[in-house]
Write a structure and sequence with these properties.
370 residues; alpha/beta; 2 domains; binds pyridoxal-5'-phosphate
Length: 370
């Protein structure tokens, strides 16, 4: 449902398409050109990916993030292989089993895998009774709005390679991580030893389209067959390519992510100022917070967002390329009003929300809270 007053915080998938992307689609919509990627748009977009990731990299465009992950992991593994991931990983909880591999899901405090999570699973290597760990998949930024440092990625890649495993990065929000770390993709992805990356476009201002970027040249040769068999080869490829050209031109991909991250910082700051517990460090474009159940329902009626963890009333707010300061201000005002003056305790966590005057007046609630 569309919120008519201001942009919501449910998901960056709910956001609009950036006007420069819309323009690129319109501009590409003239005349016929060859299909399945044999067109000049695709050629240009692929060359932009080579500028970002180096001449040895190979990018392949796909329709969506699940497709990118599934194909990337298929390129790394056989059906008897297992993939080590965080238990919050999109491949684990949000892809309906599409990776079709054993997933070794690890609970983490912040969505980030560490070597301590990975190493204990490696003693089964060579034992025929066990699915063989053959890849590690990390999300950058994570589903918890946190970001791996360059060193953390390098360490994970080193452990993987020491034991014959590959490293996949789910970069549906890679731009938000790049902005957060203020490093190039060469530093974050290429030099750290990542083998394959799902590069996100849709959550960062595109209408649709993602890329699988192969950094390990040994994996590139057969990928085109994997993509076609996996139903992710677009016949009208020019329309994905044209969007990527616009996204990668003049750093639009970074500008979009910059805005989303900055708005998340603002929202996180405002929530904490009110005494609300923000449960994860806000390092990319998502904010996680615990609220009283009754406030959640009321806020959701005004501007829908998702529960993250029903057990402890934890919610997730996501900022997007098109989130404005006014959006944050309005949402903050609603938030303040809904939780103002409440004392509450959830799952052993104690909260006291400051009782400063609400900026938005809602007669019904005012009566009840007064
Ligand atoms: C971290 C992450 N990876 C992958 C995806 C999959 O994207 P799609 O919904 O386009 O398949 C999402 C979507 O929300 C995501 O959050």
């Amino acid at each position: 449902m569309m919120n008519e007053i201001f942009n919501g915080f449910a998901s960056d998938n709910n956001a609009t398409v950036h006007p420069r992307i819309m323009q690129a689609l319109a501009d590409a919509n003239h005349g016929h050109c060859l299909s399945y990627g044999d067109d000049s748009f695709t050629e240009e977009a692929l060359s932009l990916f080579k500028q970002l990731f180096g001449q040895d990299s190979e990018a392949f465009f796909v329709f969506n993030g699940t497709g990118a992950n599934v194909l990337a992991l298929q390129a790394l593994t056989q059906p008897y292989h297992a993939i080590i991931c965080a238990d919050t990983a999109h491949i684990c909880v949000d892809e309906c089993g599409a990776p079709a591999r054993s997933l070794i899901a690890n609970p983490t405090k912040d969505g980030k895998l560490t070597i301590a999570h990975i190493e204990p699973h490696l003693h089964v290597l060579g034992v025929e009774h066990h699915s063989q760990p053959h890849a590690v998949s990390i999300s950058q930024s994570t589903e918890m709005g946190t970001v791996y440092t360059v060193d953390e990625i390098r360490e994970i890649a080193a452990v993987c390679h020491r034991h014959g495993l590959f490293l996949h990065v789910d970069g549906a929000r890679i731009a938000n991580a790049a902005v957060s770390l203020n490093v190039s993709l060469q530093e974050m992805i290429v030099k750290t030893g990542v083998d394959i990356l799902s590069f996100g476009g849709t959550k960062n201002g595109m209408m649709f389209g993602e890329a699988v970027v192969i950094l390990n040249p040994a994996l590139a040769q057969t990928f085109k067959y994997i993509r076609k068999q996996g139903t992710q080869l677009a016949s009208k490829m020019r329309f994905i390519a044209a969007q990527f050209i616009a996204l990668l031109t003049d750093n639009l991909w970074l500008q979009n992510a910059q805005n989303a991250n900055r708005m998340a910082q603002l929202l996180s700051h405002n929530a904490r100022e009110m005494g609300i517990t923000v449960t994860q460090p806000t390092q990319a474009n998502s904010v996680f917070a615990v609220l009283p159940a009754e406030a959640i329902k009321k806020l959701q009626q005004e501007s829908f967002f998702y529960m993250w963890n029903v057990a402890n009333n934890e919610v997730r707010w996501v900022c997007s390329w098109d989130t404005t300061e006014e959006d944050v201000k309005q949402f903050t005002a609603s938030l303040k009003f809904k939780v103002s003056g409440l004392k509450f305790e959830v799952s052993g966590l104690k909260f006291k929300v400051s009782s400063s005057k609400p900026e938005t007046r809602n007669p019904k609630l005012e009566t009840r809270n007064s």
